[in-house]
Every structure is written in C-alpha cells, then in structure tokens.
Amino acid sequence: MEADKKKESRGVRFFSYFEGRRTREGVPTPHLMEELNAPKRDVPLWSKAFAPLGFALVMVAMGVGCFFLGSPAVGVLFCLFGLAPAIAVVVLVCRALPQVLGPRRDASGEELGPYLGGGGDQRVRDMCPGLFDQEREKIEWNRADEAHRTWEWIQALPCPVERVECASDDGTRLVGRAIACNPDSDRWLVFAHGYNDTWRAGLTYARRYAELGFNLLLVDLRAHGESDGAWVGAGWLDRRDLVAWCRWVADRAGEGARVTLAGISMGAAAAILACGEEDLPGQVRACVADSAYDDFWNTAVGVVSSGSLGTPPMPAHPIVDLARLLLRLRRGGYDIAKVSPAEAIARSAAPVLLLQGEDDKVVPAHMADALSAAAGGAAEGEGHELVKIPSAGHCCAVFADPDRYWEAVGAFVGRWA
C-alpha cells in the first residue's frame, strides 16, 4: 500500500509538471507541451541578405585560383556557377518587389468588394483551403446572404457615400468613403482593409456596424485604391495613416466622438499598431482586429515558403532577406522587420478584440495567441479579448459563424465604445 501511494504521488507530480501552469514574474506561461510544440520563429538577420553575394565571391575566388593553377576552363565554370544563381536571385527579387509591394489599384469592378461581389465565392475558396465540403457550403451560403442584405442596405441608405480625403504625416494623400448612416450617433468606425483590397472590402462589415449605431469611414490604405503611396505599408506605414484618419473623424464629429478602429488581415495589424501610437486621439475607445498577424516578417516568410496566397512555394531565404534590403534602399521604403503588432498591443491605450479563424493558412491561429499573450491574455488586464472561430480560413470567420462573430463584436463595442 505504501509503495502504491509513492507511485501515485510520483505520477501526480509528473502529471502536474507537464500539465500544470508555471509562473514567471506572476504571469502565467503556456503548458510545457505547448512550448515544445510552438512554431519556430524566424529571426531577421542582415547577413542572410548577403548570402548570394558571399556564395558568388567564394565561387569566383575558386575560379580565379583555377586560372592561376592553369585550369582556365574549370575557372570559368566556377565563376559562372557562382555568379549566375546570385544574379538570378537578385533579378528575381528586384522584379518581384514592385509587383508585390508596389501600388495596388482596384481593377476588379466589384461594387460590393472582393468578398461580397460576384467573385467573392472564389475569394472565399482561396482563403479557406482544406475545409470539408459542408463547411465550405455553409461559408458560401452565409456570404451570399450577407451580399444580398448589404445590397438592400446600400440601396436604402438615407445618406450618400461621401468621398473624403486627408493627409498623413509624410504628406501622402489618403482617400476614404464616409457613410454618416447614423447622424444622431457619436459612434464612428474607421475600417482598414487587407492586402490588395480597397475600401469596398469594408462593405462586408458595414451593414452590421451600422446596425450597432456606427457611422462609417472605410479607407483606402496607402498604395491601395485611390490613396497615394509608393509602397504597401504592411501596417507599419499605415499605422500613421490611421492616426491621421482618427484625427479626421475627431475633427468632424467633435470631442464627444467615440471611435472604434477595425480591420482585417494587414488592416487589422495596422489598427493594432495605430493603437500603440502615443498621439492616437483619445476618442479611440476600442479596436477590433480580424486575422491580424503578430509580426510581418514571420508572416512573409510563411507565405513565401508555403505559397499560401496562391504563389508557388519558394525558399524564403534569401528572397525575403533581399526584399527587406532592397525595400530599405528604395525611396519611401522601410524595414519590414520592424512591423510588430505584438509589441504595439502591449502598450495599446484601447482594448483590442482579436478575432481569428482556427483554420487560417495565411495568418496561423498561433499568431492570435501570441497577440493575446502580449496583451496580457484573453479578457485580462486592459479588456483585451480573443475569440477563435472554428472551420474558418483567412478573414472568413465572419462567414463561418456570423452569429458568434457579431455577438462577440456587439458585446465588445457595447462595453468599450
């Protein structure tokens, strides 16, 4: 009996070690098994950007050595083998950089935007790979239903869709659409779309926010739609643009305005980054971030290596590293390794609601966990919350389970905004 008790005690201690929560400076840490299974983070190093150059120099040096040793043919082969791949990679990145991060203009002609418009069914399929047929059918049905309801809502609007402009800190001209659909309300929503979209992406959410009593400002992020800008901001440049838009709303609606920042994907990351800015107007009461990445560098590495946005899978290094270097050297460029919403959310003055599809292949669900942990954990500290929606791909949680999605949003903005 005594031996059995000792075995049981050792078993309890063993189980507690693996399943219990340890604490570090009073903050709960994840389970040990979660730590062991956590995805590896890629660390940006400038040395990786010069890897092709180093390879070329080594091969050329060997080629020169062969010349001195009386083997010119071998020397030529070494030089070609060293220079050709390095030049090819640099040319590839130089050509791809403006195509990927250069200005994105809307040429789709979709009046209801990329999700609710006629091509929305294909967009949703692209964003939700790997789902069962029943899950996909549910998403498509909800998407089509929202498209119908949104079209009817637009037709019945008591106000025009007003084209508005403002300027960012660096003088970049920004364009958006204001819809003062609740003129007696002091609630305003500033909505930021995702990569390669325009203000029309916000129409997916506009009707529901209007029903919650919000007036709407749907913006074109810089280098998208009608907004100026040499480069897509990846959230980093856009954070200052959103601060400018919030000032615009505060000037229009007055000191009593209650502003909610919202966005999807890159726009969600930009909204979180804006909430970390010291000069964000005090009228900003809340932030709703759908499918936000915790840092852009690892997102870019994941997208390039997996081809999750429809591009062929390619080795992330040195492609992403060279892109980082070349973008830094271009006029109006910036360092993509600095884009870290996880750092910004820790100093956000406004509570943040994180919404995340559990089956997101573009921005994996573990990034939402990282953002939540950086903010103090779900529903802890400053009112931050994390809501995960099953059977939902990138930016498709709103279609996978609209009842749960809007219940969470309504409760959150009702509490804080």
Automatic annotation (TrEMBL):
Gene3D superfamilies membership: alpha/beta hydrolase
GO molecular function, one term: hydrolase activity
SUPFAM superfamilies: alpha/beta-Hydrolases
PANTHER family associated with the record: ALPHA/BETA-HYDROLASE (PTHR43358), ALPHA_BETA HYDROLASE FOLD-1 DOMAIN-CONTAINING PROTEIN (PTHR43358:SF4)
Keyword tags: Hydrolase, Membrane, Transmembrane, Transmembrane helix
Top-level taxonomy: Bacteria, Bacillati, Actinomycetota, Coriobacteriia, Coriobacteriales
Pfam family, one: Abhydrolase_6
Keyword Transmembrane belongs to the record: yes
Protein name in the entry: Alpha/beta fold hydrolase
Residues of the AB hydrolase-1 domain: 189-407
Transmembrane regions listed in the UniProt entry: 49-70, 76-97
Domain of life: Bacteria
